[in-house]
Amino acid sequence: MAAQKLREVDDGIAVLTLYESKGMEFNDVLLYDFFNDSLATATNWRAILHAEHREKSFDEKRHAILRTELKALYVGLTRARERVWIWDRSDKGADLEALLTAVNLATVHDITEAVPQIGVTSSSHEWSQRAQQYFSKRLFSEAALAFKNAGMDWWERVAMAYGERQATMRQLQHHPHRQSSFSTVARRFERLAESPEGDDNPSTRDHLFLNAGECYAAVSNHGASASAFLNSKRYTEAAYHYRMAGSFEKAVDVIKRHPVNSEVAESITYTAKTVYTKRGDASSLRKARDLFGSREDFLKFLDEQGFKEQKITFLESLEEFEGVGDIHRAEENYISAIRQFHRANTSSSHRKAAACLLEGLRTNISFAIGYGKRSKQLSQLFELGQVAELTQDERNEVDLLRAVSELDSARLKEHGFRCMSSGNTLHALLALDCWASSDVIGAFASASDVEAAEILTTCRKFSEVVNTVVQMPKVLDKPAAWNLFCIAPGKATGRAHSETVSIKRHCFVYNSLNGTASKRKGAVKQPTPVMQPRKAVEDEIRRGVWTRLTGVISHIDELARESPAYELCIPFVATGRCVEMEQGLCWQDHPPAAELTVPKFNSRFRLIILTIALVNQPNYDGWDEHKVVWAVKQQTWLDQLFKLCFPPINNAGNLSDVDSSLIPEYKEAMNIVNSCLSTVFQGLRPSKGPQDFLNTIMRTALLASAFDYTSATSYFKRGQWALDADIAIKHGLIIPATKRPLVGEAMPWFLKDIPTRTKLGVSFLEGVVGGDVWLEVDVAIAFVEEVGAQLILNEDAHRSEGRHCLTMPRSWIIRAISRGVSPQANGSIPEQFVSLLRKFIDTLLLREHKDGSRLQVEGAPLTHPESLATRYRGLRILKDFAVGHNIPRMRETVLSVFKGMGNACSDIQLYTSCLAWVEVVEALKSTSSDLDELISVNWKDDMTNEYGLRTILYSDDQKLLEELSLVSTGESPDPQVTLPQEALHPMPSPKDVRQSKALLPRLVRRGFTKTTGGVHGQGKVEAVNALGAFVGGPCSAVGTLAMYLLRGSSGTHPRETVAASLEGPGIV
User: In sequence order, which residues have a C-beta less than 8 Å from that of residue 191 and are 6 or more positions away?
Assistant: First the structure.
């Protein structure tokens, strides 16, 4: 406080505090206002006097303040070499003054007295020395004064600069002028160092720059600080502050040129590398490169630090485009990679471009992923593929992937078949799986028969491929599998490297394999590759591929059940009209009459056997949880096959019309069908669905024995049909009289070498018609037809006078020949057979067994004898009375049966109204179709054709079958209508007139009932012949009706017109 007052009085004197003066000596010292500023009171100071004169003790605790003040006084007194002057305005030191005066250590002068001169004037040298002392004591103001008095102006400014720095450093951190003050002081230091005097004092000059650097650093002016440190030769600090200023070039230059602390140098260099690299421009990257020992070290640094974009820029600056492409490829930036490889334009880069193209396509398109995907990236990849140098295999794969992305079903199918033929199973799998995912399957229900067959054939190929993949011991052993299923080699984990694989996020089994972990850890926004055991992945791939195939098969199965290509509308085929079709409710096919051909029948047959082959997939243990469902599907299609081969009416073909030459896949598909039939038959036993047992076993036996007689008859003997006796008895499957299984009567009939087969077949039918057993009418009728045809053949074969003639529908002849002749003659079996037929027709018409019969029509009890369905089936039974035509002794019995039937529906009345056998023949002819006309096979060429039937002269079985085949023309023969001479005779015989009178009403009715379909082929000849015989020659009415019948009118002539035309002479 006193020092401050003195400085205010005269700033030309050196004023020091006691603290500042420690360690210094002066000739004369002036203590100013010591006692006035002292914290000790007068009483405290008096304690010294009392201690001296009164010998009082000195208490350290009580006199603690005094002790402190005495120490300060001691410092002041001992600074002087010669004299001490004490000037004080306070009386607190009076007692001490008295004590010192008493012992002659001091003299007292009053302020009014003349005071002796204090010291003498110091020399420049003394001031210089004193200035240095002040400076060393950091008393910069005093030093500046001393330097001034010494005449050392530069040093005065130096001391003042130090003083300003000292004052600035004492300012608070947030002082508003602190930053500007430091900057001002720093510049002052720099100017002093740069002055000529600084050059004369190198050491001081360095310290001045050092102070400037420290001042700049205090306010974070790193650039100026670094420059000042560099001038002061403080290279480590200079490099550091250049780094802090972002001037890495200068920092690095300092490190290169001057010694710098190794740790600082390493840190700055590393930071410079990073900073230069982060800038990313070519110039900065070259600077970064220069900080490394080699190019390889720099590239390694870029890789380790993840500077991929910078690495790309650096390599591009060196025109190393192939390396740039490698980086893009590693990052799955395939488009950029391919472009860089093309820029490199080397043989190796072209190969890399091709590989990269395929990798990019595979990433976007893999098995079950990316089908129909048309992204911008894919479009660019395919464009690049057009100019890429690809091998033929690579180009094929690119074209395959393009077809996948476009869901081009035609090209996919082509690729699938090509890959299968070349053994490229996995690419075939991709092509056909994608094909199955296109809209081609969805259009199956509305596809034509040809289109549906193509779809089924392709699905079979798909099934073959899937089964091949599923049966591979190690799916991932094939390199192509890694690409197809998006699997990558596993990284080192706890398991062996070869036992783990990485599943990429676009792998089709990613979710199924990672599902449990995802649920446990929570939802993952962005799927990432996961590690899984290789075996688990292979198993899941097999299961996934298999599941996709079964999904396709199930879809096909569902659509096929309502596909018009599979099934005809029977009412429409029979009458030319379908009420449900007119209401838009019938999904079945409604073809014109011209399309009811053998090739069309075989087309439907082909579809069904292909469907059976498709549905008949292997059941892999533990995979298919719905084996029963697949068995039901298989049985459903076997039933559909039976329905096709044994239809309610034969207008559109039947079993006899199956022609393997029209079905390319016949051998392969029928092997599967026969296998299915074998499996079904051998698994049948009454306990497994007793109500449907007989239906299934008879359908199976009829089909199996027709398709593969040798194999079928071998397992017919090994079946389980004789088991479960209690259940069989309960459901009428045991014959009460013999206690033998009912099926045991039927199975021997299929064995050609059983002598009594014909008798057993009829016995089975008697058990069915007269018994209480569940059986479909269609199944019973099919077996009746088979037994009837074989009975007729057997009758002719065992004639004592040799083979003569047999007359049956075309299909019966074909099947009878395949069934063969029995070793034993018929005997009285024909009589039993006719009696059986009567019971059967009475049952169908609900005249017998009305309440107890279990015969069914399509699973429902027999009802409505006048229904269209009943009429079809009744006519089929009535055709079996053709046995009477071939066995003349049975004709009167047959006629009596017809007479006893009484009134019936119009179609059946064609038979029940017959009075003579010629009428029966005409009824048989009129109810025959073009595909199944009534044919007479003669063994001698001198036999007469009194009924106008188509006649074939027998030579051997094979030639007979060839002549009966309708495949060559695709439809039944349609002979030219020529009126025989008998029809033109003016005077018909009485017999002709009688027969024609009986036939005419039926012919007219026949014409009316066929207004929508017309009369075709041989039927036209029959009509004209009959009319000609009746009238004895042509007339207008006959001509009108004949022309109507010949045209096959589809309703263009109403019935009234025809009736009016018939009102001619000799007709009414």
Answer: none
How far CA 981 is from CA of 653, 942, 947, 1025, 1046, in Å, comes to 34, 19, 15, 10, 19
- Decide the pairing of beta strands 934-938 and 805-809: antiparallel
Asked if residue 665 lies in contact with residue 461, where contact means CB atoms within 8 angstroms, the answer is no
SS3 (DSSP) at 735: strand
* Residue 795 CB coordination number (10 Å): 22
CA 246 to CA 957: how far, in whole Å? 107
- Alpha-carbon distance 251 to 272, whole Å? 9
Helices 891-901 and 829-844: crossing angle in degrees, nearest 10, is 20
Strand, helix or coil for residue 203: helix
Q: Which of 389-393, 640-644, 1028-1032 has the lowest mean pLDDT?
A: 1028-1032
Strand intervals (E) in 664-803: 734-735, 740-741, 775-776
SS (H, E, C) 941-973: CCCCCCCCCEEEECCCHHHHHHHHCCCCCCCCC
595 CA to centre of own chain: 42
Exposure letters 582-608 (e unless 16+ CB within 10 A, then b): eeeebbbbbeebeebbbbbbbbbbbbb
Residues with Cβ within 8 Å of residue 397, at least 6 apart in sequence = 358, 361, 427
Q: What is the pLDDT of residue 861?
A: 75
Per DSSP, the three-state class of 934 is strand
On whether the CB atoms of residues 367 and 542 are closer than 8 A, the answer is no
Of 152, 160, 134, nearest to 14 by C-alpha is 134
The mean pLDDT of 412-431, rounded to a whole number, is 94
Greater model confidence, 366 or 988: 366
**What b/e sequence results for 384-398 when a residue is b if at least 16 CB atoms lie within 10 Å of its CB, and e otherwise?**
bbeebebeeebebbb
State the average pLDDT over residues 455-472: 92
744 token code pair:
């045991």
3-state secondary structure of 86: strand
| Cβ atoms 367, 401 nearer than 8 A | no
* pLDDT tens string 210-248: 999 999 999 999 999 999 999 999 999 999 999 999 898
Extract the tokens encoding 905: 């529906």
User: Position of tokens 């996934």?
Assistant: 544
**Strands 934-938 and 487-489, sheet pairing:** unpaired
Phi-psi region of 1054 (alpha: psi -120 to 50; beta: other; left: phi over 0): beta
User: How would residue 969 be classed by pLDDT, with cut points 50, 70 and 90?
Assistant: very low
CB 96 within 8 A of CB 45: yes
* Three-class HEC string of 254-289: HHHHCCCCHHHHHHHHHHHHHHHHHHCCHHHHHHHH
Per-residue burial over 690-708, b if 16 or more Cβ lie within 10 Å, else e, is bebbbbbbbbbbbbbbbbb
Closest CA to 909 of 899, 918, 917: 899
- Tell me which of 867 and 453 has the higher pLDDT: 453
| 530 backbone dihedrals φ, ψ, rounded to 5° | -125, 150
334: three-class secondary structure by DSSP: helix
Q: What is the DSSP letter of 661?
A: G
CA dihedral 132, 134, 140, 144 (to 10 degrees): -60
DSSP 3-state percent helix, strand, coil across the chain (nearest 5): 65, 5, 30
Confidence of residue 412 (pLDDT cuts 50, 70, 90): very high
Q: What is the pTM of this model?
A: 0.69
As a whole number of angstroms, the distance between CA 94 and CA 101 comes to 10
DSSP string, 568-621: B-HHHHHHS--HHHHTT---SB---GGG-SHHHHHHHHHHHHHHHHHH-----T
Output the pLDDT for position 1048. Answer: 39
What is the DSSP annotation of 371-435?
Answer: TT---HHHHHHHHHHHHS---HHHHHHHHHHHHHHHT-HHHHHHHHHHHHHTT-HHHHHHHHHHH
Residue 241 and residue 90: Cα distance in Å, rounded? Answer: 55
How far lies 418's CA from each of 367, 383, 397, 498, 838, in Å? 18, 24, 11, 33, 60
